[in-house]
Amino acid sequence: MRISLIEVPYDCGRFGERMGSGPLELSATLPPALASAGHDVEVRRVRLPDRFFHEVAAVVALQHEVRREVAAAREAGRLPVVLSGNCGYAALGAAAALPPRVGVLWLDAHADFNTPESSPSGFFDGTCLATLAGRAWAGVSRRFDGFTPVAEERVVLLGARALDDVEREGLSNSDVAWLAPPDLRADPAALPVALDALARRADRLYLHLDLDVIDPAELRANLYACDGGLTVDEVTAAIAAAGERIEIAAVSLTAYDASADDERRGPAVAARLLAAVAAAVDARA
């Protein structure tokens, strides 16, 4: 398989800091692992101009660049894999580069379903799935390149367990299909049913892998990691199940903070997840 790793090493517009460190480490370690499995890998580097950006301005600028790189990879017949510090510009850029009727499988410890008005932290990433679905940042969204909100009925949120009350209420009043880890384990049919519905409504899939979806016992991905997460095996099984039903057209691996990962498990976990993606894509070829 031909893969483009799109390195976007920013967290809140800061280069290489906190979760911005993860893409730098992954872009150095993943190519040899992928090449040894027979894949043709290139690394594309996204950088902001050398001036000050506040967070939302950085999101807009990086969304433009991610969209351009994802579109270029697809045009060249390559699978775009965005290695990103933050979730927002990765998702908003990748989804904008895909054809209409894109579906989203979003794996994350957090729902990212706040709005600027409800956010307790003011962190853009805490609003980014709501923004992708057209619920937040309407004015800012008009500055994104090629962006159209994704219909909520084409979004499956998997693994989220750290939500505030406003997010829970918003999700309960939405058409997003949300499966927390206990839901996945209590009903083995829940994810296949959700993915079958998604496949009927969407033509391509954007796969969002925030690494803190994984339980800290297997990977402490960042400072926001919390107990009760999915195992790596559960995530790879979800990837395979999604790939059986719909073409995976773009992927993001986000929110890996190398400084929080004392045992440096992140690169090996990321390689396993991308191996599962490659197997799912190859199985449909």
SS strand fraction? 15-25%
- Gyration radius from CA atoms, angstroms: 17 Å
Based on CA inertia axes, which overall geometry fits? globular
Strand order of the largest sheet: 4-1-5-10-9-6-7-8
End-to-end CA span: 10 Å
Got a strand count?
Answer: 10
| CATH class term | Alpha Beta
The CATH superfamily bears the name Ureohydrolase domain
Summarize the biggest pleated sheet.
8 strands, parallel
Give the ordered list of helices and strands.
EEEHEHEHEHHEHEHHEHEH
Q: What number of domains?
A: 1
CATH architecture: 3-Layer(aba) Sandwich
Task: Describe, in plain words, how this protein is organized in 3D.
With 285 residues, the chain is an alpha/beta fold. It has a single domain, classed as Arginase, Chain A, CATH 3.40.800.10. It is built from ten helices and ten strands. It has helices at residues 21-36, 55-75, 88-96, 128-132, 138-141, 165-172, 181-186, 190-201, 232-245, 266-284, and strands at 2-8, 10-11, 14-15, 40-45, 79-84, 102-107, 155-158, 177-179, 204-210, 248-254. The strands form two sheets. Strands 4-1-5-10-9-6-7-8 form an eight-stranded parallel sheet, sandwiched between helices. It has a two-stranded antiparallel ribbon with strand order 2-3. Strand 7, helix 6 and strand 8 (177-179) form a beta-alpha-beta unit. Helix 1 packs across helix 10 (266-284) and helix 2 (55-75) packs parallel to helix 3 (88-96). It is globular and about 45 Å long. The N and C termini lie close together (10 Å). 52% of the residues are buried. The mean pLDDT is 97.
